[in-house]
Write a structure and sequence with these properties.
By secondary structure, the protein is mainly α. The chain has helices at 7-39, 45-66, 72-75, 78-100, 103-110, 113-124, 131-148, 160-179, 185-204, 213-239, 242-245, 251-264, 270-292. The longest helix has 33 residues, at 7-39.
């Protein structure tokens, strides 16, 4: 898919792809949040994600078909659909959180996922986790407490939603790591997108609403942006090492702060900024420890 380059250029290219991936994912989230705020109706959420999913699934599916990488084995793989179901559950809690929380705070709490993946590996996969990595896990939870600020709970108990989403993301990545090594990135993304579309399709059955032309245009743009985000997420893995690009996932917090302020006048609190820094540091520390142990390259 991509031209071969020198090792140093591959790393730089991978970083750029990750930055673009986070940028387009955050653009998608801004559009969805704007649509839901404009309609002031959370019941519309299922329909929006369903329509977006139909478009993005068709785009990715057409690409795989043209590349002759789409088969019945992929369409009916139980392992792929298990991952898709976990992604769907993560998406449900994420989008509900998107309605109630500022983007910066949402992304900060969601980025607890790398910490939870470490804990999940230790508790459910019997992976050996040393004292330093457990320290990073507890540090991540401390960052969450600072972001949430339990004494105020400005946004009520909505902070639980991205944390639950992060748990399902951790489970999703655990399944991906252990069971899906025989599939390429876009095949996994295709079934994931298809599963999310089906799940949200069931969610909209009981109440279907008319979609205005302007809203449909925004949904189409959202589908394009999320598809581009998926593309760059796969491209990142293909051209560079995970340990090089993973730290740049945290730039989505920066995009969240920028777009949140520019679009919804969301001003981050000092608690959110300090807590975000701690969460990012704990995730980077875990990546550093895994690199030292040779678990990632």
């Amino acid at each position: 898919m991509f031209l071969k380059r020198s090792k140093s250029k591959n790393k730089l290219l991978g970083i750029w792809y990750m930055l673009l991936c986070m940028f387009f994912f955050s653009l998608n989230d801004v559009i969805i949040k704007y649509i839901l705020k404009f309609h002031s109706n959370i019941d519309f959420l299922g329909q929006v994600i369903f329509l977006r999913g139909v478009i993005s699934t068709l785009i990715i599916g057409l690409y795989l078909y043209l590349k002759k990488q789409l088969s019945s084995e992929i369409l009916f793989s139980k392992k792929l659909h298990l991952r898709g179901s976990l992604e769907s559950l993560a998406a449900i809690f994420f989008f509900f959180a998107l309605v109630f929380l500022p983007l910066g705070e949402l992304y900060s709490l969601l980025n607890l996922a790398p910490v939870l993946i470490t804990a999940s590996g230790a508790l459910f996969l019997k992976e050996k986790v040393g004292l330093f990595r457990w320290f990073a896990v507890f540090l991540g939870f401390l960052g969450v407490l600072i972001v949430v600020n339990p004494q105020e709970l400005k946004f009520g108990y909505a902070f639980i939603l991205p944390l639950i989403s992060a748990i399902f993301i951790a489970l999703r990545d655990t399944v991906t790591k252990k069971k899906l090594k025989s599939f390429n990135g876009l095949q996994i993304v295709f079934i994931t997108s298809l599963s999310v579309t089906i799940w949200f399709g069931f969610g909209m059955i009981y109440k279907i609403q008319a979609v205005h032309f302007e809203t449909m245009v925004l949904i189409f743009l959202s589908a394009i942006f999320v598809s581009i985000g998926y593309f760059f997420s796969v491209a990142t893995i293909q051209v560079s090492e995970i340990s090089v690009t993973s730290p740049f996932r945290y730039t989505i917090i920066i995009w969240g702060l920028i777009f949140g302020y520019a679009t919804f006048n969301e001003i981050p609190s000092s608690n959110m900024i300090i807590g975000s820094i701690i969460i990012v540091f704990s995730g980077l520390f875990i990546l550093h420890r895994e690199k030292l142990k040779g678990l990632i390259k």
